[in-house]
Amino acid sequence: MYRRDFIKKAGALALGGAAAAPAVHARSHIRWKMVTTWPKNFPGLGTGANHLARLITEMSGGRLRVKVYGAKEIVPAFEVFDAVSRGTAEMGHGSAYYWKGKSEAAQFFSTVPFGMTAQEMNAWLYYGGGLELWRELYAHFGLIPFPAGNSGVQMGGWFNKEINSVEDLNGLKMRIPGLGGEVLRRAGGTPVNLPGGELFTALESGAIDATEWVGPYNDLAFGLYKAAKFYYYPGFHEPGTTMEAIVNRQAFEALPKDLRAIVSAACQVVNQDMLAEYNARNPGALQTLLRKHKVDMRRYPDDVLARLRQLSAEVVAEIARKDDFSGKTYASYQKFLEQARTWTDISEFAYLKARDGHRAQRTGDAGREG
Length: 370
Ligand code: CA
Known about the structure:
Distance between the termini: 88 Å
Bound molecules: calcium ion
Largest sheet: 6 strands, mixed
Shape: globular
Number of helices: 13
Number of strands: 11
């Protein structure tokens, strides 16, 4: 009786195995499209998306093959969110502040002026409740977000006139998107939003007085030094911009558990890797800008930074009043930042000052930093 049962079961298993094989085989070639907000192969950002697609494809042994499409190849940059939401593509790569039209709260999952650094953002997202909030927001759109890259602290931007006081911001026409743009408006300037590809011409023709982009690695690639004299730092408006991978929820949930784990892990690899790449390539590009192209690099004066910090606090706090979810996200972000900075102050900040104190004195920054 036992033996007959066993044989029957073994036979059923064998049959099941044979029957299941073609299905497994069919699933082994799941193909996903990844649409991106970046030009195809754009250094750092576009190549980061390529890296993510390659990792998923290789880690899955080719069972999940992801193909990357640059902006405009399937949808324009600013339609990536909707395209993945409705399933035109299974996956997207961009940054959450582009979707503030869906919810103002989205900006907290990207970057806000005078907000968290890359290290603090990752701490908040992975261990401080940030990612849970982000997932709660995107669930309304049938999407699952993953942190998938970081630019680190960006540069302040390229200017054709010196910024010596708050008054110099008056009437300044600058390409600076998002909340940074709103801060500039309140300081008396005129923010303009232009896609990256149009920055050089706009700056060179005098259509704009200044522009920010990313940092030395990307700014050198665009040749912005040929169109402006002064390169200001720090990028108060983007202190650690998180990039995102978004996945269509239905497509994600249709995956077997191991492939879901691979998608999630690959995003985390790229999240860390992109920051390392920027930190590795920015210094060399900066030296090229300073030594070869004789760029005049300046630090924003203290009183300018103080005014921008004050205006930023107002602008960011106003998001909290837009709706309940934005209020909840702001509260979580601010609470985490207040805690994080007590540690950052006595760890990274204190250490870097101790390590580089002699350099700060040599460049005269020590006195100015107070
Ligand atoms: Ca930027």
